[in-house]
Write a structure and sequence with these properties.
The chain is of the alpha+beta class and 344 residues long. The protein has helices at residues 11-25, 27-30, 57-69, 80-86, 108-118, 162-165, 234-240, 251-257, 300-317, and strands spanning 2-4, 47-51, 76-79, 96-100, 104-106, 129-135, 138-144, 147-150, 154-156, 173-182, 194-197, 203-207, 210-214, 264-273, 280-283, 290-294.
Amino acid sequence: AHCIRAQFGEPDNIAMMAESLDFYERFAERCDLDQSHSPIGLRQQGYLFASTKAADRSAFSDRIEQQRRANLDDVELLDGDEVRRRWPWLSDEIRIATFRQRDGWIESHRAIEAMAATANVPIYLDVAVERIRVANDRAQGLETNRGFIASDTVILAAGPFSRSLSPEPLPIALWRRHRVIVGPNPNIPQDGPVTIDANTGAHWRPHQGGALLAWAQPERDVEAVWPGEPDPGFPDLILRGTNGVGRLAPFWLEIARTMHLGDIQLTAGQYTMTPDHRPLIGPAAATEGLYLHTGYSGHGIMGSPSGARLLADIIVDGRVDVNPFSPSRFSGDTPPPDVEEVVL
């Protein structure tokens, strides 16, 4: 399951995520599916960014003003008392927060399955791409474990494996990310929002009677791998650590005291991080016929519907008037980020 939000501070990201959220809200209509329910499990219980620092009021207010200038006019600024009135289980230490009700999450595997089933294109299973064949600086097709597929147009959208498959350097770093799923527990509120500690980055949201927890820890660039190797100490860090989810939601500390290893599922994957934490969408710099749709920096499910529409326009029309995510914004020798700076 993946979170979807338009609460960003930068106009281009806001526009991208708002368009993608609209796509998910109208998913059944767009994919010609039964519209009596959400086929992707869309839950719009909101996104709450909360801080225990009263001094953050100014920064939060400024961020809301930026969002309003970008036509995102439904973000609320809440003081600590209003936060606790709406969600009584949250900490007395919270001083200021922002909240947007339309944000939420989807069951991403259901969205992928539905899009694949309605796409009217061939999909090859158990076929591994080994190399993008290039001749005279032009894409020729794909070399796979089942043979060669000829095509003069190739879209590179391989997530963490985009960098190793690309015939030219990409300014992408791969950072490990952990996810903890806690099984059903009556003490976990199921009507809460995605709750993000704006001071530490630790966050959680309800999930099938339990919860999904995550926290961006500093990482260094590594090679692409699947499945990822998780740090076995991460659950203890996020559940029992001083700056974990219990800082804003104290009930987590109570739950953690009686939790057993079998109560949680720990997994790890990789984010494709660019220097400005925005995706690479458009023609590759040095390979004609190669188009990039990667580098979403942790916001792929969140932003890819808008990004895919943008890339389709570029391929069909040959150009677009404005593309703030063009790979050409980086030079060919731009290095990827080295040491992570945690960004929400």
